[in-house]
Write a structure and sequence with these properties.
Blueprint: E1 11-12, E2 15-24, E3 27-34, E4 39-45, H1 48-51, H2 54-68, E5 78-84, E6 89-94, E7 99-101, H3 102-107, H4 114-133, E8 146-149, E9 154-156, H5 181-192, H6 206-209, H7 216-232, H8 242-251, H9 257-260, H10 266-275, H11 287-298, H12 331-334, H13 351-392, H14 402-408
Antiparallel strand pairs: 1-2, 2-3, 3-4, 4-6, 5-6, 7-8, 8-9
Helix pairs in contact: 4-7, 4-11, 7-10, 10-11
């Protein structure tokens, strides 16, 4: 028990605070007892700085009430939310999950079997589908928000808490459609400003990275990054610089899961690949479709992916997402990310080197063609000259060689 915490033993929202369970940018989570029903609950108390953001608090209360109406075994149940006048704190009273978050399991060295992974993936899709049907977008799906009970029952937590607080991130592609160096610097400042953004860049969709509106397909991308972490033990992209992570989300392909773990089933790899598509139109349309593919893959059958939409024309590749210029604006963005401790990521050939190699090959081929053409022209010229000489000496009774007669008829 953290005795120094001023909220310990206080009553907030009808709950007596017992102990601190965890803390983050969105506030502190406590183990508490709801006195009216004498039941243990989890009580999240929002930080004071968020309480001054009227827009955020309004949306928070609205979405807390909305998620409280969703009855699903894979969503943390919300019992109450509001403002405690005495403590002058906003709170949300939730179901107490007896277990740990997915990232805690992975950090402690737990490697889930592929059967367990299929189960966790299916439960995540099932729970998130219920929220999406209610019109609720999570906006911050990540391993820390996926709770696992002792029996590995999934509980998705923190709905509605992840949208940008205080202000929205400006879209760096607005106006000209290109990302300038100035826009990159502004974006870096917003990302590093404590309170400018709530969420984890490692699990944000490309459109969220650019300040675009998040929708259900954004949650699906974040779910794909979470599944990648579940299988490989690390997120698809990581770097100390959040702007570098954004660059990777927009431009880079993640390291194949086979590199981090051997024997990954093809179905899991295809599902994760579909979820991590850069453009929303190339991802699943819904969590129901994702859930169907998880069941197919678990049964050893081929998944449908976005092929299920091809008859409606939705599987056509759309225009690519805006790409961050690397060397022109920030040379560090083009640098190869540091190798993993004890194991480097697979080497990738930079685009500039690839272009140079291709150009060199083309030049060599052209020179070879020209050289062959020159040799051929020389032989033909010599043969033609000899034939002319032999023709001039025809009156002497000599015949031209057989090979020359064949060449010239």
């Amino acid at each position: 028990m953290t005795v120094s915490d001023p909220l310990i033993n206080r009553v907030i929202g009808g709950c007596r605070v017992v102990s601190l369970l965890g803390a983050g940018a969105m506030g502190r989570v406590y183990r508490a007892v709801q006195e009216s029903l004498d039941r243990e609950v989890a009580l999240k108390v929002l930080p004071k700085e968020l309480a001054s953001d009227v827009e955020f608090i309004t949306r928070f209360l609205r979405e807390a009430k909305a998620i409280a109406q969703v009855s699903n075994p894979n969503i943390v149940q919300v019992f109450d939310a509001g403002l405690d006048e005495d403590a002058k704190s906003y709170y949300i009273m939730m179901e107490l999950v007896r277990g740990r978050s997915l990232d805690r399991y992975i950090e402690e060295g737990r490697q889930f079997s592929f059967g367990e992974i299929y189960s966790i993936m299916g439960q995540c899709a099932f729970g998130l589908a219920a929220a999406h049907r209610a019109g609720i977008i999570h906006r911050d799906i990540k391993p820390a928000n996926v709770m696992l009970g002792e029996d590995l029952i999934v509980k998705i937590a923190d709905f509605g808490l992840a949208k940008t607080a205080k202000r929205k991130i400006a879209d760096p592609t607005a106006g000209s459609g290109k990302i300038t160096a100035e826009a990159l610097q502004k974006l870096r400042a917003e990302l590093t400003d404590a309170g400018a953004i709530v969420g984890t860049p490692a699990y944000m969709s490309p459109e969220q990275c650019l300040g675009h509106q998040a929708d259900a397909r954004s949650d699906l991308y974040s779910l794909g990054a979470t599944f990648y972490y579940l299988v490989g033990g690390r997120p698809p992209f990581s770097d100390p610089d959040p702007l570098r992570v954004i660059y990777q989300h927009l431009n880079d392909a993640p390291t194949p899961l086979d590199y981090w773990r051997s024997g990954v089933p093809a179905g899991i790899k295809e599902i994760v690949k579909t979820l991590l598509a850069k453009h929303p139109a190339l991802r699943y349309r819904s969590c129901e479709d994702l859930y169907e593919d998880v069941q197919l893959a678990a049964a050893g059958r081929a998944i449908l992916g976005i092929k299920r939409y091809s008859s409606q024309g939705a599987a056509k590749k759309p225009k690519s997402m805006p790409r961050l210029p690397a060397a022109k604006s920030d040379p560090r963005l083009a640098a190869t990310p540091p190798a993993e401790a004890g194991r480097g990521a697979p080497a990738e050939v930079p685009r500039e080197i690839s272009k140079a190699i291709l150009a060199a090959i083309i030049v060599v081929v052209v020179l070879m063609i020209l050289s062959c053409a020159g040799v051929t022209l020389y032989i033909v010229t010599k043969a033609g000259g000899k034939t002319t000489g032999d023709a001039a000496g025809a009156g002497t009774g000599k015949s031209p060689p057989a090979h020359v007669r064949c060449a010239w008829g």
